[in-house]
Structures are given as structure tokens and as C-alpha cells.
Specification:
Blueprint (H helix, E strand, L loop, with lengths): L2 E5 L3 H12 L5 E6 L14 H4 L12 H4 L5 E4 L3 E5 L4 E4 L4 E3 L2 E4 L3 E3 L10 E2 L4 H11 L5 E5 L3 H12 L3 E6 L7 H18 L3 E4 L3 E7 L2 E8 L4 E4 L1 E4 L3 E3 L15 E3 L4 E3 L2 E3 L4 E5 L4 E3 L4 H15 L11 E6 L2 E7 L6 E7 L6 E7 L2 E8 L2 H15 L2
Parallel strand pairs: 1-2, 1-7, 2-3, 7-20, 9-16, 10-11, 10-16, 11-12, 18-21
Antiparallel strand pairs: 4-5, 5-6, 8-17, 13-14, 14-15, 19-20, 21-22, 23-24, 24-27, 25-26, 26-27
Helix pairs in contact: 1-7
The structure holds flavin-adenine dinucleotide.
């Protein structure tokens, strides 16, 4: 193995490069990244960068000290346009091509958009530029912000925008407390109350039927699915994302909600995938997963690096994500899926902190901490032990 090409210079792509370096790989590593910015981390984009607490440098993905020994060839501002699996070659938008012995697809996701008019005041949030542009609209103006979508991203932005003085309305088509399917009813109800306490209006069971705006800017007029209307100065569309697999069309790779991989994160024929774009078979759960979680991007990148150079170990992590909103940090280890029971094991949802476990047929499969970081390491240890090797 002489030459490894990693397409996508985000968290997963850099983790592959780090993993190859720690495993002593001595061949050539090339990272191809469409973005021009120095690599940066995405979680702060809806939190510290958006609020202004951090500048863009502080959100760097990998400091110069950590990056230096990796020494990959990094092509920034260059898009991979196609993959020739048989020929082991990546075609680039700048007209060049790269031959490889192994290639890693780590191209992340793109925000899903609605049928929306072209307006500078209707935004999505994925990149550093998106975050800085949204901040410019929110800061010092006390605008009316409409957040379409009450998922993690939408609610984090709602919380940060309140801190910047915006008046915030969130609409979410699924009825009930937002995020209940991801964090359980107790935490979701408490989170909804936290937003209400901070003055955010959340309307669930309501979608956006149409958005009217002009290309030159100005207010956006939203008509909701029940016929009511909301006027906003800024609209954030936060309705999920689409895996960046368009460039793989015609490659023969199987793509279905991401790059379809086996339990080793291999898509076959020396092609691997990691991070938000990878849909792999989690052998521990016997289920296909595609996770848009920061920690997964890191862990999966490292696992792919090890497997490329011959480890052949199935990737069976206990998934982990966190969200920060106001003074609340919610952490979830494991998966809150097909749950038939749950138990509060520390504190109480009526208090400032609690820990809850979720189980399926008597087996604990997930643990949630609400401002309980100190207690979560032990929960994670137990979940990893239960997952087995
Ligand atoms: C605003 C925001 C807040 C978040 N907050 C949290 C959080 O609190 N907790 C949490 O667990 N997770 C959070 N996440 C999710 C987490 O950041 C992602 O899971 C993680 O960044 C995924 O890393 P990745 O490398 O797979 O994808 P990315 O970081 O998206 O990197 C993929 C890169 O590939 C590039 N690319 C795409 N197509 C091509 C191509 N054809 N050629 C070359 N390059 C290409 C893209 O431009 C991008 O730079 C958040 C995400 C966002 C956007």
C-alpha cells in the first residue's frame, strides 16, 4: 500500500490521516477538500462561533502542532468530481486526477433545503461561512428569527440567537416536545420548557407551507401548514441533511442514504467511508447506521485507518453525541431506539441535573445525562462492556 487518498478534509478525513500516521503508515496520504478554509470544527458553529464567544481560529479542527507530523498533501478548494473504482483513480474539479491504492470517502453532508425563494435572509448552517453570515444577520439587530426545524441544529441556533437578542420562533412538523425521539420524553419536555423560559416560541405539529421573500433581502413572510403566518427578518432552514454522494454517481458504488459499507466500513474494491456520509453495518446492533455525530467522525476515521492497513476489526462503537443549549448540556451514549423501558437513576427531571437509562427487553442500551457530565463516564463504560468486543 503506497498511496491513500482521502476525499473530504473534515473531522473524519483528518481522523483517517491521524490514524494512518499513528499506525506508522509511511506511504503518501492526500487529503482533498472542497472548502478553502483552514480545517475547522463544526459543533461550535451553532454555539460559540455563532454567539461570538470564539473567533474562527479557536474553532480550528486540528492545531498546527497536531497537524505537522501527519504531513499529508492537502488540496484545499478542490472538489472530487468522480471516482473510477476499477481504475483506482479520483478525478478532480481542477482537471487533475489522483491514483490510489485505497480511497476514503469522507465528504460529509449538505443541508437539505425547502422550496425556498432566493433571499440573503433565508439561511442554512453547515460551514464556517454560514455561521459567520448568520451571525452578521443576528448580531446588534434584535431581529425576528424563524427557525424551520426543531432538531439539534435548529434548537441550538434558537438558544444562541436568544443570547444575541433575537426574537425566536421555531416550527417543527412532528407533534410533541422536539427531539423526543432522540433524547426521550423527559429530557425533551424539560428542554422545551427551557426554551419557553428563555422566551422562544416553539410550535410543533406545524410545517412551513411557503416562504415569500425578495432576492434583494428584506423580511420573509412564512405561511405555516395551518394557514397562520409568521413574518421574520431572518429564517434558518434546519430540516436535516443529504449525504454528499453526488460525485460518486456512475462509480458503481452502492449509495443509499450514504455510502453503503460493511461492518469494517469498506464499500468494496479498496473504497472506504467514514463520518456523516458513511452508512455501515454496526455488527453490535446488527443494524445499519449513519451517524451525524462529531465523536463518530473521529472514531470511524481512526477505525478506517486501522482497517485499511490490515486490522479487519468491525467498527462497533457505542454512539455518543452532546448538545449545548443555554446552560444545559445533554449527553447521550448509546441509541434511544425501540426502547421499552427507562429509569431515572440519578437526580430528577424536575431538578438541575439527572441521569436516565433506556432499555430494550431488560438490557440497558442508552444513557442520557442532563448536566451530569461527571456521571456519564461510568454509564459509557457499562454500555461498552455490554456491547462486547
Ligand atoms: C452547526 C453544527 C453543529 C454541530 N454540533 C454538534 C454537536 O453539538 N455534537 C455532535 O456530536 N455533533 C455535532 N455536529 C455534527 C458534527 O460536526 C459532524 O458529525 C462532523 O463534523 C462530521 O464530520 P465529517 O468529516 O464526516 O463531515 P464534514 O465535517 O462535513 O467534512 C466533510 C468535508 O468534505 C468536503 N466535501 C464534500 N464533498 C466533497 C467533494 N466532492 N470533494 C472534496 N471535498 C468534499 C466538505 O466540503 C467538507 O469540508 C454539528 C454539525 C453542525 C453543522
Amino acid at each position: 500500500m503506497q498511496s491513500i487518498v482521502i476525499v473530504g478534509a473534515g473531522a473524519a478525513g483528518y481522523a483517517v490521516a491521524e490514524g494512518l500516521h499513528s499506525a506508522g503508515f509511511k506511504g503518501a496520504v492526500t487529503l482533498v477538500g472542497e472548502e478553502r478554509d483552514e480545517p475547522y470544527d463544526r459543533p461550535p458553529l451553532s454555539k460559540e462561533v455563532l454567539s461570538g464567544a470564539w473567533n474562527r481560529e479557536r474553532a480550528a479542527l486540528i492545531g498546527a502542532k497536531r497537524a505537522a507530523p501527519l504531513n499529508p498533501r492537502v488540496l484545499t478548494g478542490v472538489r472530487a468530481t468522480s471516482l473510477d473504482v476499477e481504475g483506482h483513480r479520483v478525478e478532480l474539479g481542477n482537471g487533475e486526477s489522483l491514483d490510489y491504492d485505497a480511497v476514503v470517502v469522507a465528504t460529509g453532508v449538505t443541508p437539505r433545503r425547502l422550496e425556498q425563494p432566493d433571499s440573503p435572509n433565508i439561511r442554512v448552517l453547515r460551514t464556517m461561512e454560514d455561521s459567520l453570515a448568520l451571525r452578521a444577520l443576528l448580531v446588534d439587530n434584535e431581529p425576528r428569527l424563524l427557525v424551520v426545524g426543531g432538531g439539534f441544529l435548529g434548537l441550538e441556533v434558537a438558544a444562541t440567537a436568544r443570547g444575541l437578542g433575537a426574537t425566536v420562533t421555531v416550527v417543527e412538523p412532528i407533534p410533541g416536545p422536539p427531539l423526543a425521539s432522540r433524547i426521550g420524553t423527559e429530557a425533551a419536555t424539560k428542554l422545551q420548557a427551557a426554551h419557553a423560559d428563555h422566551g422562544v416560541e416553539i410550535h410543533t405539529g406545524l410545517g412551513v407551507a411557503s416562504l415569500d421573500a425578495t432576492a434583494g433581502g428584506g423580511p420573509v413572510h412564512a405561511t405555516l401548514s395551518d394557514g397562520t403566518t409568521v413574518d421574520a427578518d431572518v429564517v434558518l432552514i434546519a430540516v436535516g441533511s443529504i449525504p454528499n454522494t453526488q460525485w460518486l454517481e456512475g462509480s458503481g458504488l452502492e449509495v443509499a442514504n450514504g455510502v453503503v459499507c460493511d461492518e469494517f466500513c469498506s464499500a468494496g474494491n479498496d473504497v472506504w467511508a467514514a463520518g456523516d456520509v458513511a452508512s455501515w453495518l454496526h455488527a453490535g446492533y446488527d443494524r445499519r447506521l449513519r451517524l451525524e455525530h462529531r465523536t463518530n467522525a473521529q472514531e470511524q476515521g481512526l477505525a478506517v485507518a486501522r482497517n485499511i492497513i490490515g486490522s479487519a476489526v468491525p467498527f462497533t462503537p457505542v454512539p455518543y453525541f452532546w448538545t449545548n443549549q443555554y446552560d444545559v448540556r445533554i449527553q447521550v451514549h448509546g441509541q434511544i431506539v425501540d426502547i421499552d423501558n427507562n429509569k431515572i437513576i440519578e437526580g430528577d427531571p424536575s431538578e438541575a441535573s439527572f441521569v436516565q437509562t433506556f432499555s430494550v427487553s431488560g438490557q440497558v442500551t442508552a444513557a442520557l445525562g442532563w448536566n451530569a457530565a461527571r456521571l456519564m463516564a461510568e454509564q459509557r463504560r457499562q454500555l461498552i462492556e455490554a456491547m462486547g468486543p
